[in-house]
Design brief:
Chain lengths: 200, 200
């Protein structure tokens, strides 16, 4: 399984944003929408072996939305449709347990610490520009489940860096050019597809 | 210079589409919008060395929109903003000569044949799933200007295949997994950025 964890530092935790102006009204939920489509959509289908965790920190209480490729429905390649699915998930009363919104989409309260705890058996890979070249990961480096951690446009806080380090993540880089999160996800999928990175 | 040519077989040539439903009202202009942002946007800036040609074939007369990184303004990473810029370009009265819409965005009548004629001195690379592995291109293969030709969700017609072949394009592949055009553009930019493919 390929897991992608994307942290939205200002991303709204309520459904009170406008689909007519996603970047301006949702705390840049558009960044997370694009990461979702980058993770799942193929030219004619959905990647079944992918799971995405969106960590939304722009509200009073953090929320996490989880999208599971195996059962995911209604996802189209365009940004607005994805935002509408997230809006539905955010309209659910969120609690500490996962609640299903639409097929393959779940929501709960909690943030990065909880997701890292869920994924404690996965190989954690934290993408940061000053990390080691991702192509230097040895062939066994991604055997079993992999979980890639990506930030949004604001970068991780020192507390988040610390959490990630304590979880034992390797810090790797896709190069010196600073890329959007969704573009990083596209690259990671391709590197895994083409066995530049090996996955068991 | 990196050129990307994307053919939208059903893409509208008029501004009469809805920003509230881009996929459903514009002949899938959303595919081209995402290819544009994939080509240009970096985490904090715009790629200056990129030029995108969108070939719109969903009207009575083909139109081409050209976006030039060096002078491109007002491009944001979200899909809707890009669609709004293309809408403005399509509202101009189009003729055989380029007319500027907003900074860095130009429109004219004409389609693939005209764009291939404009780029006759560039190394033409046609992305098709059954092509040679892109990593097998020799180091000098992309010295000078490169122009990558990509289709949309419907694939190229036999006539377009023939035009591309006559123009001397090399047929290369990013792998056996069928990817969206915008994801291909992300990968090509990265392969060039990291010198997996060399560019002069």
């Amino acid at each position: 399984m390929r897991n992608f964890i994307i942290v939205g530092h200002k991303a709204t935790t309520t459904p009170n944003f406008s689909l007519e102006d996603i970047p301006g009204t949702s705390g840049r939920l558009d960044i997370l929408c694009r990461a979702v489509t980058a993770a799942f959509v193929l030219s004619h289908g959905i990647r079944k072996d992918v799971c995405v965790h969106l960590i939304l920190l722009g509200g009073e209480i953090p929320k996490t939305i989880r999208l599971v490729g195996e059962t995911l429905r209604h996802l189209n390649p365009d940004e607005r449709t994805t935002a509408a699915l997230l809006k539905k998930a955010l309209a659910l009363p969120a609690a500490a347990e996962w609640a299903m919104s639409t097929s393959g989409i779940f929501v709960r309260t909690g943030g990065l610490a909880e997701v890292l705890a869920d994924l404690k058996d996965a190989k954690l890979i934290y993408l940061r520009e000053d990390g080691a070249d991702i192509r230097s990961l040895d062939a066994g480096g991604l055997s079993g489940d992999a979980a890639f951690i990506l930030g949004d446009h604001t970068g991780m806080t020192p507390e988040e860096e610390s959490l990630i380090e304590q979880a034992g993540a390797r810090v790797v880089s896709l190069g010196s050019t600073s890329l959007h999160a969704d573009h990083c996800v596209v690259l990671l999928n391709w590197l895994l597809d083409t066995n530049v990175l090996m996955q068991g």
